[in-house]
Amino acid sequence: MATDIQPGTLDLELTDDPEQQNEVFLAAFNTNDGKIFDSLYREDAISNLSGRPLTGEERTRVITEMLAGGPRLAADFKGAYIAGDVLLIFVEYDLDLPDPEGGHKRMHGICTDVLRRGDDGKWRMVVDRPVALETTA
């Protein structure tokens, strides 16, 4: 799985390449900076990264709080379908979530992401839908 892409080693600019977009998403997530990560989403995007579907300011706040805890994400691009200005991406992911007591929760699963191409030709997240298939403490 793609892991630990460090800020500065990958341009965090949005891209028109679906596979590269997954690498941008990983790099932004692993900065643990909610503002950077949230910049990949359309303003009206929905994310259930927190376990429930969120949008707008609540999505931004919850993702920012989660990322401040220092989670690490690794993911393998599995495929994509493009229909006009809509992109469906499939990835297999591993997410390591630190807990307040100093332990970790590991989640392994599949994520289906829907992105929309903007006027600039770059993809932005519309729906972020990770589904955990396995969770371990």
UniProtKB/TrEMBL annotation:
The lineage of its organism: Bacteria, Bacillati, Actinomycetota, Actinomycetes, Kitasatosporales. Residues 23-125 form the DUF4440 domain. It holds the Pfam family DUF4440. SUPFAM superfamilies: NTF2-like. It comes from Streptomyces inusitatus. This is DUF4440 domain-containing protein.
